[in-house]
Amino acid sequence: MSSNSQVLKDQIALIPSEPGVYLMRDYQGDILYIGKSKRLRSRVRSYFQSGQYHSPRIALMVQQVANIEFIVTDTEAEALALEANLIKQHQPYFNVLLKDDKKYPYVCITWSEDYPRIFITRKRRLNHKSDRYYGPYVDTHLLRQTLRLVKRVFPLRQRPRPLFKDRPCLNYDIGRCPGVCQGLISPEDYHKIVEKVAMIFQGRTEELLQKLSAQMELAASQLKFEQAGQIRDQIKAIQGLGIDQKVTLPDDTISRDAIALAADDTYTCIQLFQIRAGRLVGRLGFFADTVSGTPESILQRVLEEHYLQVDSVEIPSEIVVQYSLPETDILADWLGKKKGKKVKIIVPQKQQKAELIRLVERNAGYELENTKRHAQQNLLGLEDLAQLLDLPSLPHRIEGYDISHIQGSNPVASQVVFIDGVPAKQSYRHYKIKILILLLVIPMILPV
Questions:
Q1: Higher per-residue confidence, 372 vs 223
Q2: Distance, first Cα to last Cα, the chain
């Protein structure tokens, strides 16, 4: 335990053996870690018991704990939901399991705007709570192809800024854009169009097709044949999206996600297949350090973090997992309440679902090999740098600083950090300088 061991012992003794959430703080009062348990006291005590094995990440966290707080809940599912919300709000450093290495892109829909934009990004920044991110998608080529098709089939804004001040551009004349730049469509009507597009990225393609079919029949019955023809073309285009992605299972009507991982001593690559009506509608990828925990705990945390970000309609009825999760019942209960229907989490025993998991695991393995190749390239770059600078060993941490000013006033400085050749953006800093006394800053390179 830390030097504050007696204080911590007294605090642990006061924690009840009920479901709830615990918050661990350091000496400055900053939150280090947020966790949940169905028996709070025993869970918190386990961190400080002698002989208890912890991963390097948790062991480092335990050394910094100075204060422990707790919030009691009625059920384990409520504890999970509260933990997820608190982590999302405070972003504690030691709760960061998944690495945001910008490898996989997202689709962003800016619902906070009157005329939402739809674009691909590798940065997930929640500037507005109403904005939605879908992904991260492993197959970048398919994602871009899908977005191009969507923008060709549905009348959407095609440009981030208007081309002309007083009239729409050619996209309006050919039916690609509804005249957003000139306000020729109301925000309410435009939102309805974007809602259809969002259903594709939510994996609700079959539901969208049924909705469009009903609209086409209604338009035809009202003798609006041009409108019915446009909807018919939309249906054909959407049907072509997953034509080569059929996943055969005996109960193809059930929506399900399948998740598996592949790991070595350093890296863990996780993939999640989204299967709707027997079709693979999305292949998501996540990345974590192997030292973050056991395969079972990593899968549990990936599922918690992923489903925290999605709408209730995106949660499938069944989740097929590679390993038994540490808290399967709690997660299933939480997801069921969020979805409004029962959600099953199973480790497959039957041949076809077991083969599905092996397929996901094999894809995760290929991604792991790609990750290792990129890591090898970084290693070769560090070796070249060490040779050029005549360093005794490979640089582990590289810090670079840049100072800017306006004719000697308002000086500011920026710090960037690379660890083992990879940008460590959580360590980037921006400083305001009261007095500018440095004329030259040399990058600092620390050996292992």
A1: 223
A2: 27
